[in-house]
Amino acid sequence: MAPSVVKFDHLERMTDDTGLLEHSLGRIPRRREGYSTDDNARAIWACMEWLNLLGDDESAERRRLYRLLDRYLAFLLWAQREDGWFQNNFHFDRTPESESRSDDCLGRSLWAAAVAYVNLEDEARRCVAAEILRRALLASRELRFLRGQAWGLAACCLLLSMRSDGLALPSGVTENDVKNLADVFEQCLLDAYLAHRTDDWRWYEPKITYANGLLPWALFVAYRYHGRAKTLEVAKESLDFLTTKMSGHNGVVRPVGNRGWCDSDRRADWDQQPIDVMKLALAAREAYRALEDEAYREVVRRCRDWFYGNNDLGIPLADPSDGSCCDGLNPDGPNPNRGAESTLSYLLTEAIAQSL
User: Fold this and answer.
1) Is pTM beyond 0.90 here?
2) HSE (CB half, 13 Å, CA atoms) of 89?
3) Domain 9-354 adopts which CATH fold?
4) What is the pLDDT of residue 4?
5) CB-based burial of residue 313 (10 Å sphere; 0-12 exposed, 13-18 middle, 19+ buried)?
6) Domain spans, the chain
7) 18 burial level (CB within 10 Å; 0-12, 13-18, 19+)
8) Which DSSP string corresponds to 200-260?
């Protein structure tokens, strides 16, 4: 049985007074490679998942998570431009790198801000999440790619679900604004699925590439908000297809490899990325919440076990003694570096498993 106690030592090691550093050499941060907003947004989400799990006790871990959360909120507040979009990549000296604006980064940051906004109880932090969220919602009208739209759909439905419980929206944001955005994003995902689905290909794109579970997850989130049958049908059909494509011998989770991805003719087994396992667990948790089907809880368990060695090589990637995780599983073994994305993928997967 995989360990149930997780520490945040490595997350803290990777965090300085600016925010979460992106890469490491082994367990030691690589400062020369700087920061990404993507990772700091993921870190906000991870902190909120674990704060919810740890409850109301005033433990040392809760106090540490709040200290880290403050760094990550400050990072997003700094990285957000006046138009609501985000500078994603920064050098270690805090100067921005040259880049094009990223749908994924905006969507991921929008989700992180929404999670913080609906879960934080103290107004001092919550007002920061509200400001980030307000500007990100305005910018999200320009999202054009499926993964950014999936983040946007989930964030809007989370806000609308909490709105029904009496939560006020950020200043300047109306309920109709959020509903209209959610409807647009949901229709984009459904249209993409209809355009590419065949009898033997149940997916939104001609290839299964990265962070795939995000797409059915967002539709399950939407279904739990409004209960539309077609949305549930697409979410379930696509998640079941993805789970099959990501399963190996005896049901071991086998992420689609980034050396060629997966289409109707072939599937790459290597290299396997922790983020893809986390996104499958995320979608399966939402499916379980919607359908109460134990098969989906079992998928979450298998995703968790992948990090502890129930994978194609039988080698653990995660180290619960400090909460770190190797950057990927390659045919010759794990990548020994333990960067932000992989570590957060592990911490989020463990939180997802413990929440069920």
Assistant:
1) yes
2) 10
3) Glycosyltransferase (1.50.10)
4) 60
5) middle
6) 9-354
7) middle
8) TB-SSSSSB-SSTTHHHHHHHHHHHHH--HHHHHHHHHHHHHHHHHTB-GGG-B-PPPTTT
